[in-house]
Amino acid sequence: MKKRALSFMLAFTMVAAGLAGCSSSSGSSDTTAADTTAAGSEAADTTAAEESTGEKTTLKWSVWDISATPYYQLLVDAFEEKHPDVTVEMVDLGSTDYQTVLATELTGSGSDFDVVSIKDVPGYTTLVNKGVLEPLDSYIESSGVDLTQYKGIADQVRVDGQLYELPYINSFWVLFYNKDIFDAAGVEYPTNDMTFEEYDALARSLTVTTPGQEVYGAHYHTWRSAVQLFGVLDGEHTILDGNYDFLKPYYEMVINEQNDGVCQDYATLKTSGLHYSGAFAQGNVAMMNQGTWFFSTLIEKIKTGEYTECTNWGIVKYPHAEGVEPGSTLSQITSLAIPTSSDNKDLAWEFIQFLSGEEGAEIVASTGAIPAIMSDSVVDLISSTEGFPQDENSIEALNTSNLYLEMPVHAKSSEIETALNEAHDSIMTGSCTIDEGIAQMNEQVSAILAE
After folding, report:
1. How far, in Å, are 63, 109, 286, 326, 376 from residue 392 at the CA level?
2. Triad 242, 247, 251: Cα angle to 5°
3. Strand segments (E) across 67-217
4. Cβ-defined contacts of 257-261 (< 8 Å, 24+)
């Protein structure tokens, strides 16, 4: 039964996450298939020459949060073992401003990245618009890669008919919880079918505001998605609507929790730069909405003994509004691309093909993370990962129903993202009221959409 649930979950997740593409852009690369083939042949000749002289080729890969992502080094080690003439150099650009830093690197002079990680849709849109990513279609065709294994993801990230990235990680949001806090309070664990009202009441029942003994019933990271995207789970609204009145009840819930000490103060979190993993690791957070990308970090840090206050954890499905199907949640993919400036495009493609394929998927799954493709072996690896919670609710939480993108495809997604982030920050810090912040979103995003 567990295996069937996981299989269904992964298949559905990857279909929905496939929507995480990018819209058309007049600024896309003018590189033709012929140019790409010629460049690939030249790169292949260079690689062959290096092999004959015994020299190693270095592939430079941009990533973020190396220390918190255990599958990075495992992927690199496996690829280097299959390619002893290659060294993969990871460059950590940090998670906070990753896409901004990457765009600066790729549009500046002297960038020597061969493979770049794509973190989100707005960042992808920006890079495609700037013409700094290589079209992958000729590589895919010549390699015989079956794009159907991505369950529609590849088709959804095409720009003007061309594909500039290939996904290798697929993530969705769940509710993490610390069982020890519930046990100490004598409160039953959260379930896979909670309305927001039930969730809010549960968080309040676990909260302790005594100075020095604080227990937070809930925790929200400083990303706008941790609050705003509660409002899109009904399938009727998107974050591109241009009118955001539907967000008011969710902001009211979180602001009231913040005022009552149910969750930590946003401004304090922002100033201190406390990472969500650090907050949960302290052992005084009962529930935290976060993505499945946290699985691998949590499992690894507990295994190494770095996390000692949150070892008894579980997950359940996202809370939902009345009338919304349980298991409705948010989805996001992480992809790989080749910069047009790379001198090793053919080898970079081999690396991408490895990470995005079956072998890479099994390595990712072995750490508890969810890859972009699913097979029986991948499902077995996820379900049997040491440290992954084995209670029925945690397994069932992986069986999602409806998935919605954090940021849907749009040519101006980056501008919209900026406007929404600014308004979110103003609301959460108290710089403006909820009504004023929503009015700001309505005005600014509507103007962007009308351009």
Report:
1. 34, 53, 19, 16, 20
2. 140
3. 86-92, 115-118, 158-159, 162-163, 166-178
4. 257/200, 257/203, 257/204, 257/217, 257/218, 258/428, 260/204, 260/207, 260/209, 261/207, 261/209, 261/214, 261/216
pLDDT of amino acid 166: 95
- Rounded distance, CA 403 to CA 12, Å? 8
For the chain, state the CA radius of gyration: 22
Q: What angle do CA 85, 91, 97 make, to 5 degrees?
A: 155
Listing DSSP states for 105-149 in one string gives HHHSTT---SEEEE--HHHHHHHHHTT-B---HHHHHHHT--GGG
pLDDT at res. 37: 40
Two structure tokens written together for 20: 């995480």
Mean pLDDT of the chain: 86
What's the pLDDT at 60? 98
Higher pLDDT, 300 or 445: 445
Higher pLDDT, 364 or 155: 364
Q: Under 8 Å CB-to-CB from 9, ≥6 apart: which residues?
A: 398, 399, 400
307: tokens are 């996390």
Q: Residue 110 — pLDDT band, cuts 50, 70, 90?
A: low
The answer to whether 32 touches 160, Cβ cutoff 8 Å, is no
Distance of CA 390 to the CA centre of its chain: 24
